[in-house]
Write a structure and sequence with these properties.
Number of helices: 7
Shape: globular
Radius of gyration: 22 Å
Strand content: 35-45%
Number of domains: 3
Amino acid sequence: MQHPLLSVRSGLLLLLLGALPLLAAAQSTCLLVPVPLAQRVQQAALVVEARVSSQQPEQGVNGHIVTRSTLDVFKVFRGQLPAGPLSLLTVGGTLGTQREVASGTLQLQAGQQGIFMLEADPTQPGELRAYAGPQGFIRYDLTTLTASEPFGQYDNIRNNLYNAIIASAGTTYQELQANSSLSGAASQRATRRQTSALQAVAPTISSFSPTAVTAGTSTSTSSSSTGVLTITGSGFGAARGTGYVQFPNADDGGTSYTQPLPSDYLSWTDNQIVVRVPSESASGNTAGTGQFQVALDNTGTLVATSPSALTVTYALINVNSSGTTYRVHLIGTDGMGGYTLQYASSFPAVAKPAFEQALTSWHCQTGMNRTMSTTPAPSDVAARDGVNVVRFAGSAELGTGVLGVTYSYYSGCTGSSTNFRLDETDYSYTPVPIPANPNATPPTRLTTGTTTRPRSPAFRNMISRA
């Protein structure tokens, strides 16, 4: 088979990730093919343990808004550090009132730390990017001393994760400086475990309402009763302080948690917390379905877990501008109350029926207007150019294991109030052959680090429909 019909048949998923409303069950992992840790470590030019010390949005040479993340390196597991500060580029960011979001790509936040597997960026000469997209970063959770990636978790950073990387690299690491945040978190956690029984009592969650919510429907600038969660219990503390609520991260299938922005907490008392359910969290992720938690501090010892799962029915895309969240407005750029898409020359005729079937199904489920034009796109690029293009990307453009990326372009305007609108969306697929028997490879279960978990149902559905 010469064309990636697997990717095309998953067009519905790609469309969902690039528009409003965004179903909370549609995770970014649906657009990824699992890449084994050994392959990532061995194929990456540089593997380091580092922290994102600063970030700066800029205009990339490829026409996209990119964010430069400067890394503070603690350990080198593979490769040689370049001269000067180490940084990588990720697609997306905000410049003035222009914002770009690229689904299916790595998104970082200042202060995050973990293992970075980096390669030369073919779209940005002289720059580095994460190898295998989101799978090129294994994020640390210093609260629990665990780490997570899109398809797996590591129960212990220093033992399980370090050992797995060393085994894959075939050599031990070089320590450049102590990771004081990691060692401090371990020491604090050990101390709290020894004293918590005498000095502190963990909170408890007795109930919550509603049991089904929507994410991103209640923001700093709009309200919705279904977008706010009320948590009832005891021992939460008279004020929030260092406490927080955390929801399963819908963008990695719940292998990690994500916390609301500080502005999302509406009230906090000893027996009740009222909080917005975010689609643009503090880490830039969406709250997903599952059991949520209330923590009193960042030691991971004073934590309460909800007695049952919270259902997140769907999420609306939000824009976070300086800590204030906004719902995005859809506009009728085509004069017919919607958006008109155009095929690029790289998109073959054999792939079009599958894409259009997915587009029709998506339209019927969401009521959103996206139609195909009979006029070809004037160019075969994904860029903010007023053309909603559907295309196959270059072989190295999207990275190993990435099936497709949706580029969404927003603009904001200010007056008596600030509003953001979706101006354009581009859809890029990876042109890779698909095995004749899609059920033969990859296996239905995969092992990453110390845990084994089944691939997401959405990913299995993609394979079965190919």
